[in-house]
Fold this sequence. Notes:
Blueprint (H helix, E strand, L loop, with lengths): L1 H4 L17 H12 L10 E9 L3 E5 L6 E4 L14 E8 L7 E4 H19 L2 E10 L2 E6 L2 E6 L18 E10 L4 E5 L1 H18 L5 E10 L2 E5 L4 E5 L20 E9 L6 E4 L20 E9 L3 E7 L2 E6 L21 E10 L4 E5 L13 H4 L5 E9 L3 E7 L2 E6 L21 E10 L4 E5 L8 H7 L5 E9 L3 E5 L5 E5 L16 E10 L4 E5 L1 H8 L4 H14 L1 H25 L1
Parallel strand pairs: 3-5, 13-15, 18-20, 23-25
Antiparallel strand pairs: 1-2, 1-4, 2-3, 4-5, 6-7, 6-9, 7-8, 9-10, 11-12, 11-14, 12-13, 14-15, 16-17, 16-19, 17-18, 19-20, 21-22, 21-24, 22-23, 24-25, 26-27, 26-29, 27-28, 29-30
Helix pairs in contact: 6-9, 8-9
Amino acid sequence: MSNQKDFNWDDFGTKGFGEGYSKDKRAEMEALYAGTLNEITEKEVIKGTVVGINDKDVIINIGFKSDGLVPRTEFRDLPDLKIGDEVELFIEEQENALGQLVLSRKKARMVRAWSDIEEALEHDNVIEGLVKRRTKGGLIVDIYGVEAFLPGSQIDVKPIRDFDIYVGKKMEVKVVKINHTNDNVVVSHKVLIEKDLEKQKAEILNNLEKGQVLEGVIKNMTNFGVFIDLGGVDGLLHITDISWGRINHPEEVLNLDDKVQIVVLDFDDDKKRISLGMKQLTAHPWDALSAELEVGSRVKGKIVNVADYGAFLELAPGVEGLIHVSEMSWSQHLRNPADFVKVGDEIEAVVLTLDKDERKMSLGIKQLTEDPWTKGDMAAKYAVGTKHKGVVRNLTNFGLFLELEEGIDGLVHVSDLSWTKKIKHPSEFVKVGDELEVAVLELDVENRRLALGHKQLEENPWDTFENVFPVGSDHKCTVVSKNDKGAVLELPYGLEGFATTKNLEKADGTSVEVGESIEFKVTEFSKDDKRIVLSHTATFREEAKPAAAPKKAKKKEDAPASSAPAEKSTLGDLDALAELKEKMEGGKK
């Protein structure tokens, strides 16, 4: 028993850690170990050393009483990871249910990333990111493992039409906004460009001068010109300064994003509006014109514009001549140039005037054919008395102009339209565009004058009317119109007569009214003036005289015999008159 009492259990070796030591020795050992262990706090980032690697985990020593295990998958970005490497880790738990230290490199990277992002925003640092994908309104950029949004308006200083070209590429950006509530980060690449452009812009504006040749990029196109980025400074290249030739839209010769050489034409005092030119970098095409080109030369070209007054013919890009409408046809009646040519037509013309100093040229196409007034057969073709057909081109108060052929016009005076009807205006007889047959009354080739007549196609019926309407003869007439002076009467054969107001009185004291057909007596006949004056009153007042009544009755009975000679001469012409009347009425139609 005494042996058991003297047994020292502290000296007895066991398998437990630290057992077999005396209390003092144990305290000494614990103090020694405590000096090598770190005090750690959960939810913080610390550094650790890789002490082991297997297929599933990476063993990390952080100086704690136990090592931590981190899944191998969290080190995929470090394919060359080896024992002894130092890495950052996030302490999730000091000891889980299994008594193990729980670490996370993924969370450590995220914490570090947000710290770096906040630092970048605070100190305006430039970060390199990788464009991962396109999204609505912009791009998603990976910075420090955090997905940041890059708005389309912040990609570049110029509008971006294709975002896809940036996907998969590295890009330098600056953090411009952090929303901690939603863990959103907004970045910008444009601010970096603007900073560089400010220096470039200042340099360009300081050295800007007229005539300076610069290189720029087309950033925008409109129907009136092109806006060119000169490196932070925009200039306008007007459509008229793109090419010496005529173009309808800049897109015919230029494309967006093209690099072009341009020259500074002008700028305002603040250098905010800069006018640029492109065609000025090449020689003017007028300077390259052939020395053989002169007045009378025949040239070929393409119609590039048609206006109300004429058309422009392009002989070469930048070299144009005006074909005035009056030089398109020998006709004296100006028409629309579009009746002769249209844009795109390739035609031949004759040079009429040429001023190389002023760079102006007038052309004609009618000169390619002979002037009809100078043709050798003109005098014979339009000799006095010859008959022709033409088209009514213009009406005036005194007559009408008739085009017999292109360039040959004649005047038909209003008095030469009809033998019988008094025509006050040609529009009562014809209208523009009608075809009319005429006879030549007078020809003056030297002064290019041609007098024509329509009524001269027929004989003068007034020679016959003199026998049909002798003074004293009675005829049934219709009142066409009345005025204060009298009435206009319609006589047989389409003639017009006139009766004064006092000669319209009927036997009962009333007056003959418009539209009424009644007997009238011829009181005056003038073949030269083509005038017939009649009276209804005279038809009954002479018969009403008692003394004259038997004589008048005898006259009436004897009328067939006494007027037989006149009747014979007139009746013999009635058929001819009827035929003439038909022709005249046909001519009016």
